[in-house]
Amino acid sequence: MTCEAGIHEVRARLSSARAVTVLTGAGISADSGVPTFRGTDGLWRNFRAEELATPEAFARDPRLVWEWYNWRREIIAAKLPNPAHAALVEMERRFDRFWLITQNVDGLHRLAGSTKLSEIHGNIWKVSCTACGRVDTNHDVPIPILPQCATCEGLLRPHIVWFGESLDSEELGRSFDAVNSCEVLLIVGTSGIVYPAASFAPSAKAAGAFVAEINLDPTPNSELVDVSIQGNAKDIVPLLL
Ligand code: BV8
Ligand code: ZN
User: Fold this and answer.
1) Burial class (CB in 10 A: 0-12, 13-18, 19+), 171
2) What number of other Cβ atoms are within 10 A of residue 179's Cβ?
3) CA–CA separation, 102 vs 118, rounded Å?
4) CB under 6 Å to ligand 1: residues?
5) In this structure, are 70 and 89 located in the same domain?
6) What is the pLDDT of residues 23-81, one digit of tens each?
7) In a designed cystine with 31, which of 39, 169, 213, 234 is the match (CB 3.0 to 4.6 A)?
8) Can 121 be counted among the known catalytic residues?
9) Quick one: what percent of the chain has pLDDT higher than 70?
10) What pLDDT score was predicted for residue 50?
């Protein structure tokens, strides 16, 4: 199916939809200049994901992990939402029932104005205390290493879900509800590798939704979805409205 035909099909589906759910990954922020995880400029190139985005890595070397997050915070602090983020804010206003699930921790959906949003892997601008569990927003760039809790002086960590850690059960529950009750699921800019987010497309399909993927490249989801549109999110997503 050509790109144009795919866009036409998705627009037709959206025009009669009451419930729309969107899942985004690093690809939607690539057009804002935020490096993706597995692309050629991938974040993980210098480090393997397992080396840094894990509780074991943080326990072993919290300074290295904080230095890596400070490097990412510095990059992300200068970035702005792009037309794809803005189009999803508009979509939230258009549909009776809309939910946005993002794997991104860059906060750009919130910055763009999305409110019906689950940041299922956390947010790089939040920190949590490893001792008392307190969660705060923190925009320091850089965060002085090693950061301590204002209340109990415990070691602060990024409020981000690392590999091997379970996602917040409430956010996950809300996400599965949105995935299993929508008429249309749009998947934008994710390689479809990381679970449980990677199970959302098959789950929506099994629940009878129309599923469309917008991505630069084919992904493991491409075989499964109804429409796969190849292109830049910033160009494609605004055309779906
Ligand atoms: C859990 C926070 C268990 C970090 C992230 C084997 C060993 C170890 C673990 C596992 C294993 N098998 C399965 C697992 C579980 C593991 C997992 O799925 N591993 C994968 C690698 C196999 N999952 C977990 O550990 C999760 N927890 O399962 O808990 C459990 C269960 C019960 C009870 C207790 C425990 C936790 C997963 C969360 C990990 N944290 N991030 C940080 O960010 O610092 S994941 C990380 O990858 C990011 O969050 C990112 O969002 C996510 C997914 O990556 P993508 O967003 O897809 O980005 P990527 O670069 O991969 O792809 C970009 C895409 O965009 C590409 O397709 C590209 O073509 C496209 N693109 C690029 N430019 C554009 C574009 N598209 C459109 N336009 C463009 N311009
Ligand atoms: Zn504390």
Assistant:
1) middle
2) 25
3) 6
4) 25-27, 30-31, 36-39, 53, 103-105, 121, 160-166, 189-191, 193-196, 215-217, 219, 232-233
5) no
6) 999 999 999 999 888 766 666 556 766 689 999 999 999 999 999 999 999 999 999 99
7) 234
8) yes
9) 95
10) 67
Which tokens sit at 196?
A: 């449980």
**Residue with CA closest to ligand 1 atom 35:** 166
Query: Taking the CB of residue 145, how many other CB atoms lie within 10 A of it?
Result: 13
Q: Give me 51's structure tokens.
A: 């080396």
* Domain interval for residue 115: 3-34+80-121+166-240
Radius of gyration, alpha carbons of the chain: 18
Q: Please report, for the domain that includes residue 67, its CATH number.
A: 3.30.1600.10
> Model pTM?
0.96
> Tens digit of pLDDT for each residue in 187-206?
999 999 999 999 999 999 99
Looking at residue 178, its pLDDT comes to: 98
Tokens 């008429």 -> residue: 183
How would DSSP label each residue in 38-71? SSTT-TTTTS-HHHHSSHHHHHH-HHHHHHHHHH
**Which residue out of 45, 56, 194 has the highest number of ligand 1 atoms within 8 Å of its CB and is therefore the one to mutate?**
194
Number of domains in the chain: 2
